[in-house]
Amino acid sequence: MSETMHEITLRIDKAIEAKDTVTILSYFNENCEIFLSGKKIKGKTEAKKWMEFIYGYFAELRIIPENGFVGGSLFFRKFTLKTKLHDGSEILSKQAGVLEFEDQKIKNLRLDFDRADFDRLDLAYALTKAPGNKKAVNMAIER
User: Fold this and answer.
1) Which of 2-16, 92-106, 114-128 has the lowest mean pLDDT?
2) Is 126 among the domain residues?
3) Domain enclosing residue 85, as ranges
4) Per residue in 35-61, pLDDT tens?
5) Which DSSP string corresponds to 1-59?
6) pTM of the full predicted structure?
């Protein structure tokens, strides 16, 4: 029995909260494209690098689903991302996503959110603690 798009998305949410990149990426096709408020990530290898970079910033992540609906091969959803930084402070970010599925794998993911939600992230953290250090800074500067 195949999983519904909604079930797959809930499994991905749990994997995101557990910082389990292997499980997350198992739901994406090899040549997936991820669009994050204007930034494009192509393929599983780049997606993994991006996830590891992001996980370096957050001590905890929680996804609070709000609603979602299916239209053909697309799953539209709204959710709140609740994160805890290593200093104990929290960030709440309302987000919307569109996932395009092909053969039970995510072909494209588009996430929209207010980048200002994450303005509190300290670039100095990227220099000292984030995985990849200088690469992390370069990624942050390119934004």
Assistant:
1) 114-128
2) no
3) 5-115
4) 987 788 999 999 998 888 888 888 999
5) -PPPHHHHHHHHHHHHHTT-HHHHHHTEEEEEEEEETTEEEEHHHHHHHHHHHHHTTEE
6) 0.79
Q: Is residue 78 part of a domain?
A: yes
Residues 6+ apart with CB under 8 A from 45: none
Give residue 98's Cα distance to chain centre: 12
Compute the distance between CA of residue 13 and CA of residue 7 in angstroms, rounded to an integer.
10
Nearest to 5 by CA among 113, 102, 110: 102
Q: How far apart are CA 122 and CA 15, in angstroms?
A: 26
Which element (helix H / strand E) includes 88? none
Distance of CA 102 to CAs 11, 33, 55, 137, Å? Answer: 17, 13, 27, 34
Mean pLDDT score across all residues of the chain? 84
Q: How confident is the model at residue 138 (pLDDT cuts 50, 70, 90)?
A: low
Q: Any idea how long the chain is?
A: 143
CATH of the domain at 73: 3.10.450.50
Strand ranges of the sheet holding 105-113, from the earlier edge strand across to the other edge: 39-42, 28-36, 105-113, 90-102, 74-85, 58-71
